[in-house]
Design a protein that fits this description.
The protein has 402 residues and is α/β, with parallel strands linked by helices. It has 20 helices and seven strands. It has four domains: 19-152, Rossmann fold (3-Layer(aba) Sandwich), CATH 3.40.50; 158-219, Helicase, Ruva Protein, domain 3; 231-320, Up-down Bundle (Zinc Finger, Delta Prime, domain 3), CATH 1.20.272; 336-391, no CATH class. The chain has helices at 5-8, 21-24, 29-36, 52-62, 78-95, 111-122, 136-139, 142-146, 158-169, 179-189, 193-206, 212-219, 231-245, 249-261, 266-281, 287-302, 307-320, 326-340, 356-360, 371-378; strands spanning 42-45, 66-71, 99-104, 126-132, 149-152, 176-177, 209-210. The strands form two sheets. Strands 2-3-4-1-5 form a five-stranded parallel beta sheet, sandwiched between helices. The longest helix is centred in the N-terminal third of the chain and has 18 residues, at 78-95. The chain is elongated.
Length: 402
C-alpha cells in the first residue's frame, strides 16, 4: 500500500513547518522549549489540518524521544495505555530515552481513559501531547489541563496553504497543474493543509494535466469566480445590496449564497447589512438596525458555516422590510449645505452659558428646554427657532414611508 502524500511530505524539522508562527516563530514558546530541550506536557487545540500531529512529531524528534501515537478513534483503551507506559518505563530505565505520547482526538476519550494518563504525566514517565478540535476546557479533564500547557493552533492562511500546495506539486514532476486549478484547491482547502495535499494527490491520479475541471472533480466543489479584490467581489456585493433595496428576498439569498460559497468574510457581509439597515430602511422600520447589528456580533462569535444562517435571516428581513431614505437624504443634504452655504452663528438662545459673562451676552436667554412639556401644561404653542439665521425654514428630514 502506497504511503499517503501527506505522510511522505510531512516536515521533520521546525524550519520546514508552515504556519503557527505565534508558537514556533523566533522566540516563541514551542521553539524556545525545543531549543532548551525542556518539553512539558501540552494540548494542541485547533481545526483539522493545522499541523498538530506534525508539530508533535517534530518535538519528539528534537528531544530524541520515542514517539508513540495513540488515537481514540482507533479504539485504544486503558489496557493499551498501560502497555505503552510499561514500554516507556523500560526505555527510560535501560536507555534513558523519554517517550512522547501523542494522543490524537483526546476529547473522544472518556474520563476513565484520560485518568489513566494522569499519574504518568505527573511522574514524568511520559510527555503527553494531546490534540483536539474541541475546547479542552470542556472536553479534557481538569487535572490533565492543569498539568499541561494549552496551545491554540489556527487555520492556515491562503498564503501558507499555497506554500504547502506547491511543495505537494513537486512530488509530481511529470504532471502539469493549471494556475486556476491550483488556486481552486487552495481556496477550497479553507485553511486545512491536509485537504489541500489530498486534493493534489487525488487530482494527479485523475489526470496528468490537472485542469480546473479536474480540480473541481477532486475536491467535489465547483469553482466560483470571485476575487475578493476584483470585479466579481464588488459586482456580487452590489447585486446583493440592490436586491435587498428592491425588496427581492430570493435574489438576495442567491447573491448571499455566492458570497458564502466563495469564502467571503461573513463580517464584511454583516457590516454592509448594518449600513443598509440605516441607509435604506431607517426609521420606517428601526428594528432593522438592531437586528443587523446583532447579526454582525453573532457572526463574529459563531463564524462560518453556521454564520450563513444568521446572514440569511437578517438579509431576508432587510429585503422584506419597509424602506426609507429620509434620514440618509437628510444628512447628505445637511452635509452639502455645510460645504456650500455660509455658516451663520449658532443662535444665542441655543448656546451654553457656563458663566456670568456669557449669560450677560445673552447666551441661553429665553431658551425653553422642554417645549413639548410647556405646551402640554399650558396649551401655549412654543415657536422656538433652532436653525442658524440663513437656514431658517430649511427642511432636511422628510419622512417618506407609508
Amino acid at each position: 500500500m502506497d504511503t499517503p502524500l501527506a505522510d511522505r511530505m510531512r516536515p521533520k524539522i521546525l524550519d520546514q513547518f508552515v504556519g503557527q508562527e505565534h508558537l514556533v516563530g523566533k522566540g516563541k514558546p514551542i521553539r524556545r522549549m525545543i531549543e532548551n530541550k525542556k518539553v512539558i506536557s501540552m494540548v494542541f487545540w485547533g481545526p483539522p489540518g493545522t499541523g498538530k500531529t506534525t508539530l508533535a512529531r517534530i518535538i519528539a524528534n528534537y528531544i530524541e524521544a520515542n514517539f508513540v501515537s495513540f488515537s481514540a478513534v482507533a479504539g485504544g483503551g486503558v489496557s493499551e495505555v498501560r502497555k505503552i507506559i510499561a514500554k516507556a518505563k523500560e526505555d527510560y530505565g535501560l536507555f534513558q530515552k523519554t517517550t512522547v505520547l501523542f494522543v490524537d482526538e483526546i476529547h473522544r476519550f472518556n474520563k476513565a481513559q484520560q485518568d489513566a494518563f494522569l499519574p504518568y504525566v505527573e511522574d514524568g514517565t511520559i510527555t503527553l501531547i494531546g490534540a483536539t478540535t474541541e475546547n479542552p476546557g470542556f472536553e479534557v479533564i481538569a487535572p490533565l489541563v492543569s498539568r499541561s500547557q494549552i496551545y491554540v493552533l489556527y487555520a492556515l492562511t491562503e498564503k501558507e496553504v499555497e506554500i504547502i500546495t506547491k511543495r505537494a506539486i513537486k512530488f509530481y514532476p511529470k504532471h502539469s497543474f493549471d494556475k486556476d486549478a491550483v488556486k481552486h484547491i487552495i481556496k477550497t482547502a479553507n485553511g486545512d493543509a491536509r485537504t489541500a495535499i489530498n486534493a493534489i494527490e487525488l487530482s494527479s491520479s485523475i489526470s496528468r494535466h490537472v485542469t480546473l475541471r479536474v480540480a473541481e472533480e477532486a475536491v467535489q466543489r465547483k469553482a466560483i469566480y470571485y476575487d475578493k479584490k476584483g470585479d466579481w467581489h464588488y459586482d456580487t456585493i452590489s447585486a446583493f445590496i440592490k436586491s435587498m433595496r428592491g425588496s427581492d428576498p430570493d435574489a438576495t439569498l442567491h447573491y448571499l449564497a455566492r458570497m458564502v460559497k466563495a469564502g467571503e468574510d461573513p463580517i464584511f457581509i454583516a457590516r454592509r447589512m448594518v449600513i443598509f439597515a440605516s441607509e435604506d430602511i431607517g426609521n420606517a422600520q428601526p428594528t432593522a438596525l438592531v437586528l443587523a447589528t446583532s447579526a454582525m456580533q453573532a457572526c463574529h462569535m459563531i463564524g462560518l458555516p453556521e454564520a450563513s444562517l444568521i446572514l440569511a435571516q437578517t438579509a431576508t428581513y432587510l429585503a422584506t422590510a419597509k424602506k426609507s431614505i429620509a434620514s440618509s437624504q437628510g444628512i447628505w443634504s445637511a452635509l452639502a449645505d455645510i460645504d456650500e452655504e455660509n455658516l451663520d452663528p449658532i443662535p444665542l438662545h441655543l448656546r451654553n452659558a457656563p458663566n456670568k459673562v456669557m449669560k450677560n451676552l445673552g447666551y441661553g436667554q429665553n431658551h425653553v428646554r422642554y417645549p413639548w412639556k410647556v405646551e402640554k401644561e399650558t396649551g401655549r404653542k412654543i415657536n422656538q427657532e433652532y436653525m442658524p439665521k440663513n437656514l431658517r425654514g430649511k427642511k432636511y428630514y422628510k419622512p417618506d414611508w407609508k
